[in-house]
Amino acid sequence: MINILIIAYEFPPLNSGGSHRPYKFAKNLSQFGIEPIVITPKTTAHQDKNIDKSLMSELENCEFKIIHTEIAPPQKSDKISETYYFNILDIAAKKWEKHLVAAIEEVLKTTKIDALYVTAPPFSMAALGAKLSEKFKLPLILDMRDAWSNWCVTPFVSYLHYQLTRLQERKALSAAAAIIATSDQTLLDFQQLHPNIAKERFHLITNAFDATVPTFPSSLKIAAASREKPLKIGYVGSFYYTPYQRSLMFNPWWKKKPYQFLQYTPRKEDWLYRSPFFFFGILAALKAKNAELAQLLKIEFAGAVPDWLPDMIKSFGLEDLIDLKGRMSHKDALEFQAQCDLLLITSSKVINGQDYSIAGKTFEYICMKKPILAVLCEGAQKRLLEQTGLSLNLDPDDIETSAALLENLIQGNLSIAPNQAFISTLHIEKTTSHLADIIRNV
After folding, report:
1. What CA–CA distance (Å, rounded) separates 72 from 426?
2. What is the mean pLDDT of residues 104-130?
3. How confident is the model at residue 269 (pLDDT cuts 50, 70, 90)?
4. Residue 215 lies in a domain
5. Tens-digit pLDDT profile for residues 55-110
6. pTM to 2 decimal places
7. What are phi and psi of 84, to 5 degrees?
8. What's the confidence (pLDDT) of residue 84?
9. Which residue, 82, 125, 304, 391, shows the most beta carbons closer than 10 Å to its own?
10. What's the sign of the alpha-carbon dihedral 363, 364, 370, 371?
11. Running DSSP on this structure, what letter comes out for residue 296?
């Protein structure tokens, strides 16, 4: 039996995109001869933000060991350390390191550990993973769920901040015996940024679903909408977009405040595309052309409601079509998805490039056996969904054509052809088997 420590700053009952992946791996590794021990902070570390109490009973019945540690309490100095301008890394690892090291030392007194698995973000955990690997002489498997130095929701403070971040990234990746990315594009970006790291150390393991592999017909026709049965389109989760951050990304330096003049971004990412802005534009075009047909749609959003969203809905005149359900537990979110006819997904746009992110909700959507309304830019998310055969693509940059396609959808003129073979590869047992191979190799 191989024993591995899973170091996860985010872990259930925290209900976040980053918490479910290490949990699913931990649940399934034992069937491949690998015994995981999870170390994670107590839920109080997250200050009760998005704690899903419905997940607690499931955790109590799990077969692997979970060690919950303390984390340094908030300090006045945190406000400086957390400030965008005075820090290269987030402070999560700094606040956890002392308690995490003590927990690892306690485990090593009774158990022979063969490797460390560390998941990031928070990106400071990747840097800490390298430090722990050296301290305890254990091979490091670094699971990078996001692109770190190329994660450009907002600009870096300066070119120096970017280069120092990239240096931290290189040090962490160089210390890892294996580097995992969740999309083919993230993997390619890492390899291009750090060509001196051997390519065989990079591995692709997408997120996955852990329900029974759904069985699809060879063709799935979408029924026409009616007043008695409107077509329900649902969206789950966050958008990672704010108007202020976008203005920092795209405004020229002379339109910024003096302390923002030196801001730098290695590439332009437009996260307005991740918001429902362009989907709303398509809806508004359809409504202007055929208001009666548009009324056969019922559109619902499940998740925290950002300040800008109601105003965006109002600006397009769509208040009569859209319902904001608010934040839900994970269980309720799954039930919500099951009640929808189609599930909406969006992506950010990398200017003159490829988007790297594949939203975690994608894999839940697949299990629902529903068509996925994909308002996507070029990149990993679009490629993966096209491979599943489940997506109906609406081009966010071609509003009129997309509105016509949406019209056909409402009228029942569209169908999809699910790719059963590819969908089966996205099951958690397949992805965990890949992870188990990596663990054995290191």
Report:
1. 38
2. 97
3. very high
4. no
5. 777 777 788 999 999 998 877 766 666 666 777 888 899 999 999 999 999 999 99
6. 0.91
7. -50, -30
8. 64
9. 125
10. negative
11. T
State whether 181 and 322 are in the same domain: no
The Cα–Cα gap between 412 and 414 comes to 6
Residue at 193 is within a domain: yes
pLDDT confidence of residue 243: 95
My answer on whether 288 and 414 are in the same domain is yes
48: confidence class by pLDDT, cuts 50, 70, 90? low
Whether residue 190 is found in the same domain as residue 226: no
Burial (CB count <10 Å: 0-12, 13-18, 19+), residue 197: middle
Per-residue pLDDT at 28: 95
Q: What is the mean pLDDT of residues 369-398?
A: 96
Alpha helices for 297-398 (secondary structure H): 308-315, 330-338, 361-367, 380-388
Which residue type does 212 have? T
What's the average model confidence in pLDDT over 28-34?
Answer: 96
Both 258 and 229 in one domain: the answer is yes
Interatomic CA distance for residues 187 and 75, integer angstroms: 37
Residues 6+ apart with CB under 8 A from 46: 14
Task: Tell me the C-alpha distance between 357 and 133, whole Å.
Answer: 28
> Cα dihedral sign for 189, 193, 194, 195?
positive
Mean pLDDT of 232-249: 94
Is the previous residue joined to 243 through a cis bond, with omega within 30 degrees of 0?
A: no
Is residue 95 located within the same domain as residue 232?
A: no
156 pLDDT tier (thresholds 50, 70, 90)? very high
Once rounded to an integer, what is the mean pLDDT over residues 118-142?
97
Beta-carbon-side half-sphere exposure of residue 122 (alpha carbons within 13 Å): 20
Angle between helices 17-28 and 428-441 (to 10 degrees): 70
In a shared domain, residues 435 and 389: no
Q: Which of helix, strand or coil describes residue 352?
A: coil
In a shared domain, residues 231 and 336: yes
Task: Report the number of distinct structural domains present in the chain.
Answer: 2
In a domain, 359, yes or no: yes
- Tell whether omega for the bond before 121 is within 30 degrees of 0, i.e. cis: yes
Range of the domain at 48: 2-208+427-441
Average pLDDT in the 25-37 region?
96
| 179 belongs to a structural domain | yes
Closest CA to 275 of 354, 366, 351, 375: 375
The pLDDT value given to residue 80: 64
**CATH number of the domain encompassing residue 191:** 3.40.50.2000
Q: 107-114: which pairs have CB atoms within 8 A and are 24 or more residues apart?
A: 107/5, 107/37, 107/39, 107/67, 108/136, 111/3, 111/37, 112/3, 113/3, 113/4, 113/5, 113/37, 113/138, 114/2, 114/3, 114/4, 114/138, 114/139, 114/439
Closest CA to 300 of 392, 345, 235, 372: 235
